[in-house]
Design a protein that fits this description.
Blueprint (H helix, E strand, L loop, with lengths): L4 H17 L12 H17 L8 H22 L2 H27 L1 H24 L4 E3 L3 E4 L4 H23 L3 H17 L2 H25 L6 H28 L1 H24 L2 H5 L4 H4 L3 H4 L22 H27 L3 H13 L9 H45 L1
Length: about 425
């Protein structure tokens, strides 16, 4: 079977269905959700149609990591018979296939179409979560922490952070402007305040910092370069209208709708109190998130402990749940081999991204993940896939531009030689 127009349309439909339904959690956390099942169908369909996935030699790091994780978790299962260990191994295999399918889909559909669909899908999802909150729908953790269609506010915050990053890089690729990034950032900050996620806000602050740094340097460069006055005026006009409209809507809603005013005020106060509480705890945060296993069980830092069978830690530590940190969890669960493989891929991805501000955005999920474990989360692999795709797309665009410049210069050179010969 080969990809035709019908095949491309079908894979686009399955991609959008997976992305739009990944945030919908109908069963308890840890179990596959509707979006995961659709993603599995998308993987199978793409593999049947293309017979193979796009391959880059840097992917070997991810493949080796997934193989190693599957082996370690299978050994843990064989000894402790905890099904969670096998489920973890299955998730890593699934997420690797999802990553490869995403990259293949972008190459099949074309980068322009892919990023346009991606941009509007994630903007729609961010807006939908805000609408759910103000309509009194969606789920709450406790009395005040909104988590939308998720089971946990930290899952929600992780998805928000990646969504904002994906909106930022997609809109820039399509329109060469940061307007989409600022819109996404505004929507993300609103949702993070509603979720009262401290780690999520720290990650979003880094995203904002990255965008502000970029804005500053762009403005500095503009002082020394000739700008098209029409394009500059258009950009300033659109930015001003967007800013004024957004602020006007927020002010009108705050003062004209008492319920919204009360909700926003209460949520900001609750979020502030949670942030203060986290600072007061200080070092206790490390034990509560499982960091203490790194020095209480140092023998596992060599080859890894695997996931599951958490009763193993009860003799020396009070917290026996999953380590709440991606980097600490990676080091403890999969040891030195896991760390080397993961950072081998990450380093090469970092080098492929041509713009500093995009590299800075790549850091944000890892800052957030200092207090949550997200390596097994499918959204993490979708985000990494989007970064790989944008790096490929931009490198291809730069190569095409260089080739056009070379052809132009060659033609000019030939014309010059022909004219000289005629003379």
């Amino acid at each position: 079977m080969k990809f035709g127009l019908a095949g491309v349309k079908m894979t686009i439909f399955m991609y959008l269905s997976t992305i739009l339904l990944l945030p919908l959690y109908l069963w308890e956390s840890g179990l596959p959700q509707v979006g995961h099942y659709l993603g599995a169908l998308w993987v199978i369909f793409t593999l049947l149609m293309s017979r193979k996935f796009y391959w880059h030699f840097h992917f070997r790091y991810l493949i080796l990591l997934v193989i190693y994780a599957a082996i370690v978790n299978s050994l843990v299962f064989s000894h402790y018979l905890d099904p969670y260990s096998l489920l973890s191994a299955g998730y890593y295999i699934y997420n690797l296939l999802l990553f490869l399918t995403l990259v293949e889909t972008a190459r099949r559909t074309g980068y322009q179409v892919f990023f346009k669909l991606t941009l509007y899908a994630f903007l729609l999802l961010l807006l939908a979560q805000i609408i759910l909150n103000f309509m009194g729908l969606g789920r709450l953790f406790g009395e005040s922490r909104f988590m939308g269609t998720f089971n946990d506010p930290n899952q929600f915050a992780h998805w928000i952070l990646w969504s904002v990053i994906i909106v930022a890089i997609s809109s820039w690729y399509l329109y060469k402007t940061f307007l989409g990034a600022w819109v996404g950032l505004g929507l993300g900050v609103v949702l993070l305040i509603l979720s009262a996620s401290r780690s999520g806000l720290v990650g979003m602050v880094w995203v904002g910092f990255s965008l502000f740094i970029t804005l500053f340097f762009n403005a500095f460069d503009a002082m020394y370069k000739k700008l098209n006055p029409v394009n500059l005026a258009r950009s300033l006009l659109v930015s001003t209208l967007l800013f004024v409209t957004t602020i006007g809507c927020l002010v009108a809603a705050f003062y004209l709708l008492p319920n919204i005013q009360t909700k926003i005020t209460d949520q900001v106060e609750f979020f502030t109190s949670r942030a203060t509480e986290g600072l007061v705890k200080g070092g206790e945060n490390f034990e509560e998130r499982g960091y203490d296993r790194l020095w209480k069980f140092p023998e596992y830092l060599l080859l890894g402990s695997g996931e599951g069978a958490n009763e193993r830690w009860s003799e020396r530590t009070s917290f026996t749940g999953e380590i709440h940190s991606t980097l600490a969890g990676l080091a403890f669960y999969y040891g030195l081999p896991g760390v080397v493989m993961f950072f081998g891929f990450l380093y090469n991805l970092w080098r492929r991204i041509p713009y500093i501000w995009m590299r800075l955005l790549l850091i944000a999920p890892f800052i957030y993940s200092l207090s949550t474990y997200n390596l097994r989360n499918s959204m993490f692999w979708v985000g990494m896939g989007i970064f790989w795709i944008i790096a490929d797309a931009l490198r291809g665009r730069q190569k095409s531009q260089s080739e056009r410049e070379w052809l132009t210069s060659s033609r000019e050179y030939r014309s010059f030689r022909e004219e000289k010969n005629e003379q």
